[in-house]
Amino acid sequence: MSDIGRSILPGADYTDPAVFAAEQSAIFERRWVWAGYTHWIAEPGSSRPVTVAGRPLLLTRDLDGRVHVFHNICRHRGMVLSEEPSTRKRLRCPYHFWTYDVDGGLCGAPYWNRTKGSAPDDVTRDALALLPVTHAEWAGMVLICLGEPERTIDEVLAPLRERWAPTDLDRLHLAAEDTYEIAANWKLVAENFLDFYHLPFVHPQVGPAAAALDIEDVVLADDILGGCYPRGAAGKAAKTDTPLPVFGEALRDRQDIFCLFPNTLLFLEADWFQVIAFDPVSVDRTVEHMAIFVDRSAAAPEFEGARKALSTVLFEVNDQDVPVLERMQRGRRSPAADRNHLLPQWDQITVRFQTLVAASLEGRRV
What we know:
Layout: E1 5-6, H1 17-28, E2 33-37, E3 47-52, E4 55-61, E5 67-71, E6 90-92, E7 99-101, E8 106-108, H2 122-127, E9 134-138, E10 141-145, H3 153-163, E11 172-182, H4 186-193, H5 199-202, H6 209-214, E12 216-221, E13 224-229, E14 255-260, E15 264-269, E16 272-282, E17 285-295, H7 304-331, E18 341-342, H8 348-361
Antiparallel strand pairs: 1-18, 2-10, 3-4, 4-5, 6-7, 7-8, 9-10, 11-17, 12-13, 13-14, 14-15, 15-16, 16-17
């Protein structure tokens, strides 16, 4: 037993609502986290409501094409402003009809001083604009920080940008996307992504045990951890009959698999980029938003079949993980889950992930 280590997190950390609330405060309100995809608001004048750490937020793209993130709250009485994606260019609160532009400005408040046609002055309009949220765009994603960032987004992303410097992630073209509602804690979603041991058993179609044995653990930073398959696509069955254009020659012999802590899971191979980002909705419910991207040149009609074939393969892998995650969640309700053991030969990255969660919660547990 000397070569086996006890799980860092007890079973209750996956089932206790109080722990979930502490995680929302200590992790999701304090760190840079995924909030959505830029293609969700591709058109100028569009908007989409999202939720992060239980906070209603609003992604918008103004008429000049700039992305904004606001608290999705009317400044009058605090009503949630928008509940559906929109391309209407203006957003009207259904309570008293206060209206906002997609750049957050207050543009209408009827009967402001109890007379028809009255309106707030410019200073008041500016003061009552939607409240902004710190955000950034990267690799087709919108990342946000609800609190005061301890590091800039450039500092957070620097290790990934350096590793992927030969890859132009501004050339991403969306091939497919899907949403999964999973009856499991968010940590299990991330841990499963970082678990390379299960690949030949749950996903035999992606490669034999030898492929999983080839994966090397990689830690780019405390909050960027995962693995690298050094032979890339060469060591596994082809996902498409027609080769797709590649992002760069440097990636032909490598597949990178990283978790950008806490809720962004990234795959990068020579000809595709996949994001599995997730919203922790409750202690035992997580919503995944999976998007598959290819190089812009692969958007051509002659690659339609290859794009569909790639998407089918990748969605199948995720489909296979869902029942595993849900059974793992049910298992966490047993006191026996406190006696789980992690193998140093396979679970070093999981240990790092759990340690990061535990450190974030230090002093915050109820």
